[in-house]
Amino acid sequence: MSFNHTNHALNAQRDKVKYGSPKLKIIAPCKVDNGILKLEPAAQDYYEERFHEISAPMSFFIPASGAGSRMFDFLQVELALGKPELAENTKTFIAQLEEFAFYKVLSSSQKEKIASFTSQKELIDFILKDDNNGIGLGNFPKGLVPFHSYAEGQNSAFYEHLRQGIALSEKQINFHFTIQKIHKEAFEEALLNFKSKHDEAFTVSFSFQDSATDAFVFDANHEPILAHDNTYLRRPSGHGALLSNLNALTEQYILIKNIDNVQHESVAGSGIRVWRMLCGILYSVKNELREIYENPDHKRLKSVCEEFKLFSDEEIEAARDETYLKQLVNKPIRICGMVLNEGKSGGGPFHVDLKGEKSKQIVEGVQVTGKEQQDIFNSSTHFNPVMMALDTFDINGQKIDLTGFSNEDQYFVVRKNYEGKEVTFIERPGLWNGSMCYWNTIFIEIPSETFTPVKTVLDLLKPAHQPY
User: Fold this and answer.
1) Would strands 421-427 and 412-418 be described as parallel, antiparallel, or unpaired?
2) Considering just the CA atoms, what is the radius of gyration of the chain in Å?
3) How far is CA 127 from CA 102, 114, 255, 292, in A?
4) Which of 446, 347, 340 is nearest to 387 (CA)?
């Protein structure tokens, strides 16, 4: 990148940082029967069966660049504080250490060493660091930390995604993981281990977040910060930077799920059934829209919209014009599995005023301002999508350039700590936020047991991650 180009990008990002995160005008939360579908059991069964009619190639897309160290943040804080009395979560971790899958894979000598420690600091250092023959879990990618225990051994989240993915269908299912480059060899080794125990046909590919999308970092005076090598300090610009990775996949149907949202196989059946249902809805809707595109029928479009809560009233009215109708139905489609919000932090589904038009969007808290808007935001009943089934082909079976359906004005300004000081930088429009702003979207309620994220290592003690 040339100096002039770099300078232009830096100044553009500085202006955005000064302005702050752009705000959306939310109209109302999407709720069941007002933007969110809730299917009866018979309908769920019907769409699960339709899944088996899909013959087009299918791939999972799993963001897996997260560091395992984040799972142990509270232990790092414990070490830094050095207080004589341990925090409750640290006490729980130490008391139940032997129940974690990562403990069970340790050698006898490692377990003996743990038992010999006389201080919690020694124990925590040994688990998180890889010096002095430590385990080094703090340096693992989250996807390779052993999550679950079985009679035959312990499995990582990466392993579980593969095993549950190939159980989805008798047809070949592919997988794509976005990872950090430094971890590629470790993932490839884990893949060889998995393949040695499974005969199913599948492919696995890896990609990395493009460093060219990294954001410049600014201090409190909006001046760019220099790194120790005297170059501009930059940071990854959020999961929205993965849009180009997603866009590069060639499969028509793509299933998105985060690496840490996986269940023990003994309770994974619900998630597998939901995947089939979401794909069955996607397949059915696409067939309906294809027929409407080929034989424009406004009445039928309205009927499909009523059934799937697909378009706004304004869009349906505008679709009386045949040219608009064809543009409306010929977009990438996403079916978003939404769980009830049970107090987890994050955004949710809303009806939004988008340049005068009503639109269904996933909105984060930073995108709203003012008491009235905040009250609407707080009245949301559902959480961000936890499973998404995508169709990235157009009506004619051609791959769509997904970058053309992103709203670049929905970036985020984030604040982080760098060497003890607060810094700010830009995150690109979130992958399921602004990056999918102009997709055709269906929200559907799915069971809460399909959302079992592991944000802290203590989450692995919950029933979804324990055998039976």
Assistant:
1) antiparallel
2) 24
3) 10, 9, 34, 59
4) 446
Decide if 437 contacts 237 (C-beta within 8 A).
no
> Per-residue pLDDT tens for 47-73?
999 999 999 999 999 999 988 888 998
HSE on the CB side for 67, CA within 13 Å? 10
- Return the half-sphere exposure (C-beta side, CA atoms, 13 A cut-off) of residue 147: 29
Q: Which two tokens stand for residue 233?
A: 């300090």
pLDDT score, position 2: 46
> Hey, is 352 helix, strand or coil?
strand
User: What's the pLDDT at 98?
Assistant: 94
Domain ranges of the chain: 18-66+146-465, 70-140
**355 torsion bin: left (phi>0), alpha (psi -120 to 50), beta (else):** left
3-state secondary structure of 10: helix
The CATH class of 18-66+146-465 is: alpha beta
* CA dist 54 → 146, 164, 347, 443 (Å): 33, 18, 32, 21
CA distances from 365 to 23, 26, 166, 349 (A): 10, 11, 36, 11
Q: For 337-352, what is the mean pLDDT? A: 88
Taken as a whole, the chain contains a residue count of: 468
- CA-wise closest residue to 281 among 416, 88, 82, 440: 440
pTM tops 0.85:
yes
| Separation of alpha carbons 216 and 175, rounded Å | 32
Q: Does the structure show a pLDDT above 70 at 421?
A: yes
CA distance 387 to 451: 9
293-329 tens-digit pLDDT: 999 999 999 999 999 999 999 999 999 999 999 999 9
Would you state the pLDDT for residue 76? 82
Closest listed residue to residue 362, CA positions, set 248, 266, 443? 443
Which residues have CB under 8 Å from 41's CB, separation 6+? Answer: none
Exposed, middle or buried, 446 (CB in 10 Å: 0-12/13-18/19+)? buried
